[in-house]
Amino acid sequence: MRLTPFGARPPASALAGLAVVAVILAAAALAPWVAPYGEADLVGGVWDGPSPATLLGTDSLGRDMLSRLVYGARTTVGIAIATTALAFLIGCLAGFAAAILRRTADAVLSRIVDVLLAIPVLISALIVLSVLGTSIPVLIGTIAVLESTRVFRVARAVAMTIAVLDYVEIAKLRGEGLGWVMSREILPNALPPLIAEAGLRFCFIFLFIASLSFLGLGIQPPNADWGSMVRENAQAINFGVYAPLYPAAAIALLTVGVNLVVDWLLALHSRPGGQTVDL
Fold it and tell me: Which residue has the higher pLDDT, 173 or 249?
């Protein structure tokens, strides 16, 4: 088998992106210990300015903005990671199966994906969430199924080029099952583009969740969420208060950080010469 290693030293931009992502993930994981106050604690008046007690001021209900941002990272990023993982599980399994089995299986799966892709993702999500409710499991499942169609297209295209190689045909002739071929022959050689796609897909899912929350159909109160925090504090701009800018900046910062890492992975994968090793 031939694999693409990720052992090259990352550039400064990728290191900056990794630092941003690491800080946000650490804050999300350690939210109860990092946040100065509880997620829903009332600590001041409405839209109070920054002070030693509340470094970023308070929100529309008098809750500490910094604490809400930290807890919002745990909620928003955690749900985005879970949704991305589920979308890749569904999309990769279906895409690999379509590439290996071909014929009827490929045609049926591809037509199902085409139907789902024909409907705008936002409209599909709004319909499903309006009918089934906006609980976190429904939110994760709905977005994962919709985004898995994009993953399917990438996984199928990558697997198609690998499935015709000699070592895959030899594995089939040995009588190896579908699961073996997918996990031991296709997946290891498809990892580089799939890892890059995972970073991009995480950004899209993360922004999509924030957008749904801004519209009121995403993560519901009292859970802190960056998208809903922008909506709840939007009117503060009229009074010269910067409360909605903090969660908006956090969304932008994480998106840029992840994209810097993804750009490095894409460049590393596409770099000519010296990027493959024999196993």
Answer: 249
8 Å CB contact between 143 and 82: no
CATH number of the structural domain 17-30+64-271: 1.10.3720.10
What tens digit of pLDDT does each residue of 13-28 get?
889 999 999 999 999 8
Q: Which two tokens stand for residue 264?
A: 């490095």
pTM value is 0.84
Q: Which of 72, 65, 61, 66 is nearest to 213 (CA)?
A: 72
Would you say 193 and 166 are in contact if contact means Cβ atoms under 8 Å apart?
A: no
For the chain, give the percent of residues with pLDDT over 70.
Answer: 93
Which contacts (CB < 8 Å, 24+ apart) does range 180-187 have?
181/100, 182/93, 182/96, 182/97, 182/100, 185/1, 186/96, 186/99, 186/100, 186/159, 186/162, 187/92, 187/96
- Sign of the Cα torsion 35, 39, 43, 46 reads positive
Domain range list for the chain: 17-30+64-271
- Can you read off the two tokens belonging to residue 254? 């994480």
